[in-house]
Design goal:
The chain has 10 helices and 21 strands. It is of the alpha/beta class. A hairpin with a 2-residue loop joins strand 18 (319-321) and strand 19 (324-332). The mean pLDDT is 96.
């Protein structure tokens, strides 16, 4: 990515997709060039949490909501220490932010962090194109990065694909850290950071859990040195087929029958550890309004998603694995994609979406309670 910050609002910009389609607009944020996988997010709000979600590493995010930036940028809602998206695409950026917590505009924050974006394009047409053709490589160009369309297309097509990309180590913490329990400490959890969002350990801390966040390269020895009551595997970017290290670690956790909870990338890691395959979705699920059914209760939840890959597990039967029986616990009602797994013979489960609700609805908050219940049950069984 190359960037500058002068005169962005009046600077012509162009978005080029790898199939040759182009969209012309104005620079938004930094001026320069950037590359990534073009994907769309259907959330009408929550753009700050989206932009700072490490799972969006190397992706150019298209906002389907027509107006973006109305609430500006605050100092409280970041889900990590930086913006991770490669680029940002909006139709109608707010001219003046209006919110009591706003400290600066979205445009200013994108510029300050060197994130190249584009505004003033037909995002509805772009979203329909990505739905029909699938997510694809793309580039945003403005200022001195502009060139003939053929040259820009050549630059885009020279970029790597998301399938086969190993990104989780790029975004994970390099040093372990602790999020203390709120109030009385009830449990200790080792959380494997594959691209964790800040609100996730906070949600566990609110339930009396002391969370030790470990790097993606953590070993079983690192985990069990903490004497954890449970182990958590986080969300993260890239292709789960490349995550052999996390799969080996999860296998070790399953062998010891420690209570286990995974979300998003962690769901895909559990799928692989159980012997299921993974595959790339045509255009993925991204947004805060995805309907999912909890098949264990029949309840339908509105949930927050950010995933371009999914687990290939049978929906219509219980599967036999080397860790006992497993079943699909949650399913997306839009397209029958696997949205959760659970083991029936030991304490392990996962979901494909984001129950921490940052941003998003709180329908799935009970999953953190389910995790604490598993740890309580195992602890009581050990005392018996």
């Amino acid at each position: 990515m190359t960037t500058s910050t002068r005169g962005a609002a009046k600077t012509p910009a162009v978005l080029v997709l790898e199939d040759g389609r182009t969209f012309r607009g104005r620079a938004y944020g930094a001026v320069g060039e950037t590359f990534g996988e073009a994907v769309f997010s259907t959330g009408m709000t929550g753009y700050q949490e989206t932009l700072t979600d490490p799972s969006y590493d190397r992706q150019i995010v298209v906002a389907t909501a027509p107006q973006i930036g109305n609430t500006g940028w605050n100092d409280e809602d970041d889900e990590s220490g930086r913006i991770w998206v490669s680029g940002y695409v909006v139709r109608d950026p707010a001219r003046v932010p209006s919110n009591w917590r706003s400290r600066r505009s979205l445009d200013d924050e994108l510029t300050a962090q060197g994130v190249v974006g584009i505004s003033g394009i037909d995002t509805r047409a772009l979203t329909r194109h990505l739905r029909e053709r699938g997510s694809m490589r793309a580039g945003i160009f403005s200022g001195e990065a502009l060139a003939a369309d053929a040259e820009l297309l050549r630059r885009v097509q020279a970029q790597p694909h998301m399938k086969g990309a190993s990104l989780y180590e790029e975004v994970a913490t390099k040093e372990a850290y602790v999020v203390p329990a709120v109030g009385e400490k009830k449990f200790t959890v080792a959380a494997i950071d594959l691209g964790i969002k800040g609100m996730t350990p906070q949600r566990m801390a609110e339930r009396g859990i002391e969370v030790h966040v470990l790097p993606a390269t953590a070993t079983a020895e690192d985990v069990y040195a903490l004497e954890p009551d449970g182990v958590f595997f986080s969300n993260g970017p890239g292709d789960p087929a490349t995550a052999d290290g996390p799969v080996a670690l999860m296998t070790a956790v399953l062998e010891r029958k420690t209570p286990l909870f995974g979300i998003c990338f962690g769901n895909q890691i559990l799928g692989r550890a159980l012997g299921f395959g993974t595959y790339k979705l045509k255009y993925g699920h991204r947004g805060i309004n995805q309907p999912v059914q909890d098949r264990t209760t029949g309840k339908v939840e509105v949930t927050a998603h950010n995933h371009g890959f999914a687990v290939d597990a049978p929906l219509d039967k219980v599967s036999e694995t080397k860790f006992g029986r497993a079943e699909v616990s949650h399913v997306c009602l839009n397209d029958d994609v696997v949205e959760g797994l659970q083991l029936l013979d030991q304490p392990a489960f996962s979901v494909q979406y984001h129950p921490e609700a940052a941003a998003g609805p709180h329908d799935a908050a009970y999953l953190f309670d389910r995790f604490t219940s598993l740890m309580s049950t195992v602890r009581e069984g050990q005392r018996a």
